[in-house]
Amino acid sequence: YGQSQDMADMWDSTTTKNPNKHIQWFKDAKFGLFIHWGLYSKLGGTWNGKHYYGSGEWIMNQAKIPVRKYEQVAKTFNPTHFNADQWARLAKEAGVKYMVITAKHHEGFSMFDSKVTDYDIVDATPYKKDPMKSLAAAARKRGIQFGFYYSQFQDWYEPNGGRNTWDYTESKKDYQRYYREKAIPQIKELLSNYGPLGIMWFDTPGGMTKDQTRAFVNGLRKLQPQCLFSSRVGQGMGDYKDFGDSEVPPVPMEGAWESIYTHNDTWGYIERDFNFKSPKEIIQLLATVASRGGNLMLNIGPDGEGNIPYYSAKFLKETGDWLSVNGKSIYGTTAGFIPKQPWGVTTEKPGKLYLQIFTRPNNDLLLVPGCLPQVNKVYALDGGQPLGFTKKGTDLLVDLSKLKRTVSASTVIVVECKGAL
Ligand code: FHN
User: Fold this and answer.
1) Predicted ipTM of the assembly
2) pTM score
3) How far is the CA of 394 from the centre of ligand 1 (A)?
4) How many CB atoms within 10 Å of residue 352?
């Protein structure tokens, strides 16, 4: 697919010529958890009695809240319900293999103990603890890779940070000073004080030349060579490509890449959120992304007390229930060579084709078009029920009639072949 070559061309020499050898865990992971948690989580999309629709984490920008007013929110930010083990347990039950949480979003507030600024959760709030330490440990204890989101350019608190145009004049900003005095020292803190990180996830790059970004990247490598970072570091760099928010490539993509979606209506918590993706939507999205060869990182937005929204917890657990039975058809797979079908999508492992059936044909005859090598056996992944099949030219017809009619977001059929697919 042409874009994979574009990706190769697009990537800087720091990746295409010497790709990070630690990338394989990421390619096999397939499912990650994104967490947006900051002062905005306490506001829940409302400021001065007005509700701002759209991304909860953008409320300071949407309401053009002056820095001196917005920073007051920290004085009552006290997430006493935060429980690192509970969050990590949910991540495990959901079946995610990595977790990325906002260390500092565009609001400029540090959700970790930083010596670079007092505008952080330990110095500026009654909570006075660093939740990131305990969350990193709880995730790792459960075999989940831990990583940070860091808004490296947009910082609406700092006079020289990017994009606060309501308190400061953009043209008068010294971005290099912001990087030198805040962003780079904080990223070093994150890469030095929280153990081995799986991912540093940068967002909306700016204010750096290509050479500066390359030096920035190489600095990260020296601190934690195994830490991956996505293409949102900017300038075509990164160990893997991130698509735009809520984007999935239309056809399989080579290389390591990730689609990012949010489970709720926004990324940060909003009080009146009525649009949580169902387990079926999550599972079919995950299978579709995996069928194109990539990962899905799904976001949740805990509230200002440290609670994960009820429907996010419930639907993630139900997604994990499906993965506990069908995970073999997702984790460690590659893109299915058969394009999307009326009945669903496919994923692959050597010698195995996994049919992700979203819509069961009414006549129970499943047409699998494509030049399959010799098919040895066909069976349901859940329970192993062997299924009848016949070849029709180069196509395969699978008889599903023996399959019990259970309701599932995706019924997985395994086609075992002799030789490579
Ligand atoms: O502006 C941010 C937004 O708040 C959110 O963090 C998303 C997540 O991918 N990233 C930026 C918009 O793409």
Assistant:
1) 0.99
2) 0.95
3) 45
4) 16
